[in-house]
Amino acid sequence: MTTVAAYAAPSAKAPLERTTIERRAVREFDVLIDIEFAGICHSDIHQAREGWGEAIFPMVPGHEIAGVVSEVGPGVTRFAVGDRVGVGCLVDSCRECDNCKAGLEQYCTGGSVGTYNAIGKDGEPTYGGYAQKIVVDENYVVRIPDGLALDVAAPLLCAGITTYSPLKHWNAGPGKKVAILGMGGLGHMGVKIANALGAEVTVLSQSLRKKDDGLKLGAAHYYATSDENTFKELAGTFDLILSTVSAPLNLDAYLSLLKTDGAFVNVGAPEEPVALNLFSVIGGRKTLAGSGIGGIQETQEMLDFCAEHGLGAEIELIAAQEINDAYERVLASDVRYRFVIDTSTI
Ligand code: NAP
Ligand code: ZN
Ligand code: ZN
User: Fold this and answer.
1) The domain containing residue 17 runs over which residues?
2) How far does the centroid of ligand 2 lie from the alpha carbon of residue 335, in Å?
3) What are the φ/ψ torsions at residue 321 (nearest 5 degrees)?
């Protein structure tokens, strides 16, 4: 076991604070990673405050992890000391179900293990990336290509793959009109990736405050959803809408923006249920779907794609002491566009 400095929420009602945790000794197929950067995902806040239900405390959030391998177990074949690597939302899965065999570990039916707020197969709680080191089985570790700096690569491990996977699955590409709903951590990566895939990208944001940024990141159009005219003007426009919104939203209004056979794909994970008038999908044979992160192999594919297209996240690098303030700014939709913790400050 190694004692490691970390930032943890002691309970759902308390701010995060510095603490120490124990990391397991490196086993046969494990790699020890010296974490350099950890992104702050809105899911960290939902979980640290028990917005999604009962959670495990103390909680060390963080599933956007970038660092360097500092030790490998004797059975490790894919990584060596010094490799630049990343870890996302999963650190284990059953490896036997149809989904695991198909590279869809995120939909494992035999029990996947989250990077934090979960219990590992060894019965111990998992702790995430707001820490100086982590030990992970090599099968759940990906390689960060040389072309990507580690700080801007960290958010790709969740925000990147969560947008890349559905954009690929629903064929975002040339000739397709794609709307990205919400321009925060996930949304801004959605804009970059959909644009790199060749789609015509529109941002639907609450206001026009971030319009200049959206156009710079690759959007061709930018609309405010607070303006009723937006819904009149854009009725029947999109092949695909990818919603990254963290709060409940008016699904019927957004479904009206799809073309016939268009798809509204939700990745946002609000804490409350949302209502739906089913006539919104009957007319126009529309699809309402969801998507969760991405598999391990697809995460590698996404990192390679981002390196090839020069796509990192737009980040605000912070010290660990600023985590609680950063959480408040994320909740106020005041992030441009991902907070990343310099873990050397823990
Ligand atoms: P984020 O940085 O806070 O971005 C969310 C964006 O949603 C905000 O920037 C804002 O965009 C918009 N928004 C927030 N509150 C809103 C409201 N009341 N009405 C309308 N729009 C609102 O969060 P994130 O890290 O990108 O995560 C977004 C959501 O995805 C979270 O719920 C998170 O838990 C979830 N998530 C899901 C997966 C998955 O696998 N499915 C993976 C990661 C995260 P504008 O300012 O542009 O309006
Ligand atoms: Zn996340
Ligand atoms: Zn499985």
Assistant:
1) 2-158+294-345
2) 15
3) -65, -15
